[in-house]
Specification:
This protein has 203 residues and is mainly alpha-helical. It is 74% helix and 0% strand. It is built from seven helices and no strands. The chain has helices at 8-22, 29-54, 61-92, 103-120, 129-137, 142-173, 184-202. The two termini are 42 Å apart.
Length: 203
């Protein structure tokens, strides 16, 4: 049985934390792919090396090593790279708000709100006016709300990646024999020892 710290989903979850720390430094896909692949390779090899030390003689070690290398570098990394580059582009563009998200743009939004509210003051006695006033007052916050929603969707996609890695790990180990079940090698070794003991007894 593979310990939880070395399961595919756990290794990927920790890798995402490392990649997200480096992500804002890369805008173009070419440099990001080189850097992210280097980080991912180092991360996987470190996890495997630690697994070897912590679980010497683990029968599933070789199978889990191959699974981590293949799924992290060939399945997870290309998917993460596409999402990360798209997120960097959206962040650079202030999620579509452009210059309105910059300090000068925020001042312009506040001025626009004041200009819109002044004509409404004569109608404050009407209940229908208040929802409109609240919407107008929220306009300077729209760039922040758009950014919050975009980041929320991005983090949800990262979580879906982890969930998919969990499913892959589960499927990879679903048909492994239960712990303690004798394998073909162990059966051969037991038969050989039995024959050796029988020979010693006869002699």
């Amino acid at each position: 049985m593979v310990p939880s710290d070395y399961r595919l989903d756990e290794v990927v979850a920790r890798l995402i934390e490392r990649l997200e720390g480096a992500r804002p430094s890369y805008v173009d896909a070419a440099s990001a792919e080189v850097a992210f692949r280097r980080i991912a390779t180092e991360h996987v090899e470190s996890a495997i090396a630690e697994y070897r030390v912590m679980m010497p003689g683990e029968p599933d070690l070789g199978r889990q090593e191959a699974l981590l290398r293949e799924e992290v570098l060939s399945t997870f990394l290309p998917r993460y790279l596409r999402g990360a580059i798209a997120m960097n582009t959206r962040e650079a563009e202030h999620f579509g708000a452009g210059r309105l998200a910059e300090p000068a743009g925020r001042v312009g939004l506040v001025v626009a709100v004041l200009l819109l509210l002044l004509p409404m003051l004569r109608f404050v006695g009407y209940p229908v006016t208040w929802p409109i006033v609240l919407i107008v007052l929220s306009v300077p916050l729209w760039p922040d709300l758009i950014a919050w929603w975009a980041r929320r969707r991005y983090y949800a996609e990262l979580q879906r990646m982890i969930d998919d890695m969990q499913r892959i790990q589960h499927q990879a180990t679903a048909y492994l024999p239960p712990e303690g079940t004798p394998t073909d090698d162990s059966r051969r070794e037991a038969a050989l020892r039995a024959r050796q003991k029988e020979g010693e007894w006869r002699s």
